[in-house]
Write a structure and sequence with these properties.
The protein is α/β, with parallel strands linked by helices. It is 37% helix and 17% strand. A hairpin with a 3-residue loop joins strand 2 and strand 3. It is globular, with a radius of gyration of 26 Å. It comes from Veillonella rogosae JCM 15642.
Length: 439
């Protein structure tokens, strides 16, 4: 519980050409050997991600990407992977070298980041200039990413580097139009490391949760919240799933009372309380039974609906419910999950939801499934998208997927909204948020 979930961290992507110095910069900024560094071009192939704490940024996920000028046979596939990173990150660091002119590839990727509204920190690698200074001073410097403060340049040397970087930026005016901040990346200076971290810390990340919480506006000090967490064959052994853990933690943060039980124990828990609970939150798969067991004077919703409110646009997901009644034999439905896990015999996405649709008379549907980072660019072919609660995805990625569906005119719902609608209890399940949805 003490660790920030990966999906709630600020995601920072590092971009640039092969041997621009991305991996070395990551190791310098993090003060750890996160990325493999080599003079061999193309050392970084697929994106490499690492969760960590970096002050003043706090909890982050660092993603090192392949060089954008990768000309190997797998280069096209690697660029597709890099493009996926662009769509998920909250901040971008782009690395150029003072001894290399910006190419059309550089401008393309900087433009793509700008097009996606990602704040860009452009760091100019001065390594060639530093080597020239060292040659002039007849000093041989061994660049060691585990000991980045070996070299302390004198004032004259620092002024020379700043002058070279300034001249580089002025000679390529288009860079200033694309980047949010620009800094010179002297990998040998610990002082420069702090300066670059401050530049990153001054940026406003795109589409992060920020101060918003799962239970914002729903819980106050002293409120009792009952969480119904069924333990079935799909439940992980020895632990709760992430949305349940996050909800418990937030109740405690609000100084509320988190009461946890399984479905059939709900009535006895309610009866044991002196005052009715403020709310009951259940696993969506138990919606119908929990609805029967919970007096209608007590608000009821699900973890999945809370996640939909927290991560994306609940009103769009609720609006997608109207498409359910229009499904007919042959309709194409995409069922998408944000995580990748081993399928159980009663898996919710591939088994329970399809069976629930059949019980409601929606037979002979063309079902397709995606998981993890996979999500089609073209969703116009589908009559409906059914998405999970997205606890493992960043808010930016969830908003992108919802926008992708809305722009292409494809209705989208999430698991909790769909299941509540099919059981005829959607109005009750979204009643705690009805003002937000209408607004």
């Amino acid at each position: 519980m003490e660790q920030t979930p990966k999906a709630n961290r600020v995601h920072i992507g590092f971009f640039g050409r092969c041997n621009a110095g991305k991996s070395t910069l990551i190791n310098m900024l993090t003060d750890q050997p996160v990325s493999l560094v080599s003079d061999v071009a193309g050392t970084t192939t697929d994106p490499v991600s690492k969760s960590m704490e970096i002050l003043p940024l706090g909890p982050v996920v660092i993603s090192d990407t392949a060089g954008i000028d990768d000309t190997t046979e797998l280069g096209v596939l690697r660029m597709e992977k890099t493009e996926e990173v662009v769509k998920k990150i909250n901040l971008a660091v782009y690395v150029l070298r003072t001894d290399e002119e910006p190419t059309s590839d550089d401008m393309h990727w900087l433009g793509l980041l700008k097009q996606n509204n990602v704040p860009i920190a452009l760091f100019i690698n001065e390594i060639n200039d530093i080597n020239e200074i060292n040659v002039e001073n007849k000093e041989k410097v061994e660049l060691n990413t585990a000991n980045t403060d070996k070299v302390e340049l004198n004032t004259a040397d620092k002024e020379k580097l700043e002058s070279n970087t300034s001249a580089y930026i002025k000679s390529h005016k288009g860079l200033s139009d694309l980047a949010t901040v620009i800094g010179s990346a002297d990998f040998t200076s610990n002082t420069k490391r702090i300066e670059l971290l401050d530049l990153l810390g001054g940026l406003t990340p795109l589409d992060v949760e920020g101060e918003q919480t799962l239970l914002q506006g729903l819980v106050e000090e002293g409120d009792a919240i009952i969480l119904v967490c069924p333990i079935d064959s799909a439940a992980p052994k020895g632990r709760l799933i992430l949305p349940q853990v996050q909800t418990i933690r937030e109740i405690l943060d609000y100084k509320g009372l988190a009461l946890v039980c399984q479905t059939e124990e709900l009535p006895s828990m309610i009866n044991s309380l002196t005052h009715p609970p403020k709310m009951v939150i259940c696993d969506s798969q138990a919606f119908d039974r929990v609805d029967e067991l919970t007096p209608h004077t007590i608000p009821l919703t699900s973890f999945s609906i809370l996640m939909a409110r927290f991560k994306g646009k609940l009103q769009d997901l609720v609006a997608g419910v109207n498409a359910i009644k229009n499904l007919k034999p042959g309709s194409k439905v995409l069922i998408s999950e944000g995580c990748t896990h081993r399928r159980q015999c009663d898996d919710i996405g591939t088994v329970k939801i399809p069976n629930l649709l059949k019980k409601q008379g929606h037979t002979d549907l063309q079902l397709e499934f995606t998981s993890g980072g996979a999500f089609p660019k073209d969703v116009s072919q589908y009559d409906l998208i059914i998405h999970c609660g997205a606890c493992m995805l960043t808010r930016r990625e969830v908003l992108r997927r919802i926008e992708c569906a809305v722009v292409q005119g494809t209705p989208i719902v999430n698991y909790g909204v769909l299941i509540a609608a099919l059981h005829g209890i959607l109005e009750r399940a979204i009643s705690p948020f009805i003002d937000e949805i209408k607004g």
